[in-house]
Design a protein that fits this description.
This protein is α/β, with parallel strands linked by helices and 236 residues long. It is built from 8 helices and 7 strands; from the N terminus they run E-H-E-H-E-H-E-H-H-E-H-E-H-H-E. It has a single domain, classed as 3-Layer(aba) Sandwich (Rossmann fold). It binds NADP nicotinamide-adenine-dinucleotide phosphate (NAP).
Length: 236
């Protein structure tokens, strides 16, 4: 049984994978979910993490995931809701289930996991206990190419604030709203230049800035109910 573990959803690649590796390097127990088996998943398991394979689109996925978590962990220090899909409205229009999948992954899954896992967080020996959602800085602007995606991430931010009120003072609940962190494989040079020009600082910062933001939120005894923009001055 893991105690005072960090749960990260969707940690099979990129930001979630990076966060899991950094926590493990600090000696923190990690339990993570993944959907697609990848070498990164194997490497986290070799480093001592517990991996739970789940596709949250499946009917009883949340219940099965919660059951596995209770089998594997006696207590949780933090829950990080990282799993995500990023779809244009064109993609949403082409796939009949896509809108529901966005809402399920970004709103229903964190909502139901928070509810089911609150006892594991309260069982932690740590004085500080946290829930962190990863949303998107673009909810602050209108964008008519990603309306469905952004609506789901805006709902996630709103829900995070409400859980902060509900779970205070024992569990802090915060959101991180990233702008550009990492390009996707196959992004064109023209697209990259366009995205870089959207922020005042004009860089692709990489996953380390998300780790720093998570560290701040987990270590602060006086921050709850915020959405922390992590966007290089995009709003400027
Ligand atoms: N990267 C950025 O620049 C950026 C910018 C703004 C916001 N963010 C936010 O930061 C977080 C991490 O970003 P990222 O770029 O590392 O994300 P990512 O590469 O898209 O990874 C997200 C993970 O979620 C998993 N996932 C998707 N649908 C799932 C489902 N139905 N059931 C279970 N798992 C599922 C994916 O599993 P599979 O491996 O099976 O696909 C994937 O490993 C996300 O919440 C994202 O919205 C990132």
């Amino acid at each position: 049984m893991l105690n005072d573990a960090i749960l990260i959803t969707g940690a099979g690649q990129r930001i979630g994978f990076y966060l899991a590796k950094r926590f493990l390097a600090e000696g923190q127990p990690v339990v993570f979910t993944y959907r697609t088996p990848r070498p990164q998943v194997e490497s986290l398991i070799r480093l001592g993490a517990v991996g739970i394979r789940v596709d949250f689109n499946e009917d009883d996925a949340i219940e099965r995931c919660v059951q596995r978590l209770y089998e594997q962990a006696g207590s949780l220090r933090a829950v990080i809701h990282n799993a995500s899909i990023w779809l244009t409205d064109e993609q949403v229009a082409a796939q009949p289930t896509a809108f529901a999948e966005l809402m399920r992954l970004h709103v229903e899954v964190p909502y139901r996991l928070n509810d089911a896992l609150q006892p594991l967080l309260l069982a932690s020996n740590s004085a500080l206990k946290d829930i962190v959602t990863l949303s998107d800085a673009s909810t602050a602007q209108a964008n008519d190419r990603y309306m469905a995606y952004l609506a789901s991430k805006a709902a996630m931010q709103n829900m995070s604030r409400n859980f902060a009120k509900k779970y205070a003072p024992h569990i802090k609940v915060n959101d991180i709203a990233p702008g550009l962190i990492l390009f996707n494989e196959g992004d064109s040079e023209a697209y990259k230049q366009q995205r870089l020009q959207q922020s005042a600082l004009g860089i692709e910062p990489g996953e380390a800035v998300v780790w720093q933001a998570v560290q701040y939120l987990l270590q602060s005894p006086y921050t709850t109910g915020i959405s922390l923009p992590l966007e290089g001055g995009k709003a400027l």
